[in-house]
Amino acid sequence: MRVLIESRLAQPSYRKLAELSETVVGFDWDTGRFRLRTLDGYYVVGSHTASTAGALAKAINEKNFSRVRVLGEVTFTHDHIPQKINDIREARGWSGSNEASVRQVEERIKELQTLKPGWLDNEHGRALPEEGLSWLEGLLIGLMVERYLPKPRLYATPDGEVEAEWSFGTWEVSATIDLEKKSAWMHAANVETLEDAEETLDLGTRTGVGSLVAFLMQYGTFGSEVA
After folding, report:
1. I want to staple 84 with a disulfide (CB 3.0 to 4.6 A). Which of 17, 75, 124, 183 is the partner?
2. Close Cβ partners of 20 (under 8 Å, ≥ 6 residues apart)
């Protein structure tokens, strides 16, 4: 076992020209340093230049609804994880959604946070867990910005879950989301043919989140990149 571990540690990193799509999570004008989080969840550091500083600074100010694509010479670990941008050549902002749609989701989440026990009829209707709503907000906005997810309509259910709904032509698609278990029951129904489909997903995993996107894409067309 020790020999195997030492062998892995000894494997060299490598550099190559690459483009990374990322969220700017740290930026310092004075030191010229920045820190990025890739769409896969890895953190990468680097130094900006005069020509790229503006795009990076703008991206961190708009990180809730904007991402940045960075082109440069990147150091990767032996198992292909990006670590450092050594020579940044280009940085430009992008988004799969628009600021107005993202703000609408943020406002709707705030409204759901105000619901008190008994909100439905003074007797029924569980309050929604604040931590779960924060998780859901990050999930939906991340998918809108990074995966072009259309803006959902959001409703509370009496059982303390959130229902997200989308309309795609004759298809009505919904996700009933358990905020505590981080799971979703997906349902699609065609209002003309009465066809339907369902699937239960674990949204606490990347695979489950990817399956949510894949389920929706069976029934509708997602948006395009917003400059």
Report:
1. 75
2. 36, 38, 44, 69, 70, 74, 82, 85
pTM: predicted TM-score of the whole model, two decimal places: 0.78
Helix (H, G, I), strand (E, B) or coil at 26: strand
DSSP lists the bridge partners of residue 37 as 23, 43
In three-state secondary structure terms, 114 is coil
Spell 69-89 as b/e; 16+ CB within 10 A means b: ebbbebbbeeeeebeebeebe
Q: Which helix (H) or strand (E) holds 46?
A: strand 43-47
- For the stretch 61-88, pLDDT in tens is 887 778 888 999 999 999 899 999 998 9
Contact 44, 57 (CB under 8 A): no
Q: What whole-number distance in Å separates Cα of residue 222 and Cα of residue 149?
A: 6
Q: Which of 193, 210, 194 is nearest to 202 (CA)?
A: 210
Q: Does the pLDDT value for residue 112 go beyond 60?
A: yes
Rounded-to-integer distance, Cα 200 and Cα 70, Å: 36
Q: CA 40 to CA 82: how far, in whole Å?
A: 10
Alpha-carbon Rg of the chain, whole angstroms?
21
Instruction: State how far the alpha carbon of 121 is from the alpha carbons of 76, 102, 115, 130, in Å.
Output: 57, 30, 12, 21
